[in-house]
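User: I'm designing a mutation panel for Cell shape-determining protein MreC and want to avoid disrupting the core. Could you give me a predicted structure to guide residue selection? Please restate the sequence first so the numbering is unambiguous.

Assistant: Good idea. Sequence first, for numbering, then the predicted structure tokens:
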Amino acid sequence: MQQIFNFIIRNSNRLLFLLLLGISLALSVQSHSYHRSKIISSANFLTGGVYEKINHVNEYLNLRTENDELVLENARLKSLLFNKQDTSKLPLADSVKGVKPADIIVSKVIHNSYNTHENFITLNSGSNDGVKPDMGVINSLGIIGVVDNTSPRYATVVSILNMKSQINAKLKKTNHFGSLTWDGKSTGFVQLEDVPRLASVRKGDTIVTGGQSVIFPEGINIGTVENIYKKENSSFYVIKVKLFNDMTNLGHVYIIKSKDREELINLENKEKNE
């Protein structure tokens, strides 16, 4: 305390000058509108800059929460899309092959291999979340693969970059079907085999899921035609497909749960056994 008093005594003239300067500035600001507006404007500039910086920090800290909310919203919209009824035409008799009612389970890739011939993906959702083998996995750009095995909290997925993977796919514009496989070479391309030569196909045409299985709904994006090859001594094409997805960079995904899956499988097995 004594040191404070000593400081005040030693600097009494300076402190008195600052006090009088402050009083004079305050009186000048109060009595002149121009000065007052300049002071307020400067204060707003300083506080606004501080608030903006704080807001940037808050936005950065909330990115994960906002991203999770966007993923859930996207999943909800996709669920509505898959369940949408087309009232413009009557349902066909063979439409039971399609996956009509579909639920969406939001998950995240926690491991992704793409440098072997049999690549697998690990998700942070499992049987506790309703995930079962043979469920289709997609993201906003297209298909990812098919669930292979599950544990209570995790699931492994056979990637489309797996030489044992076979997925029903078709040309979007003509509905000609084929089998989607991978030759083990490039992570950006897969092959659509056994497409009839009668099909009209050009580079840039879109390839989508065919819907002739209970794994994927019909019309999910896969990629575009890059090259077309004719199989020797065969009446079929082999089409090189450029994937919409970057399979080396995967984040959130959607697992498709077909409510009709068991019913359709039981019905088809019954027909086979008769």
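For picking mutation sites, this is relevant: Confidence is low (pLDDT under 50) at residues 40-52, 85-101. The helical segments are 2-10, 12-31, 33-61, 63-83, 261-273.
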